[in-house]
Amino acid sequence: MNDMPDLRDMQQLATDVFGKREAADWIQRPHPMLEGKTPSDAAATSLGLQRVMEILVAIKYGGVV
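Request: output the structure for the sequence above.
Response:
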């Protein structure tokens, strides 16, 4: 069993955090915590995807990134 997040997990969490339309915008907008990459581009690697998930969790629960 694979416990690593995948792109569907990222999209679902972004939707949970922002709502459907805003999540789609957020995923395609460059983010300073991703070295200016979009979350979609950053998620092309497992490390980048993990970072995107960390950012989303921090936004959702008010944590530190």
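The mean pLDDT is 92.
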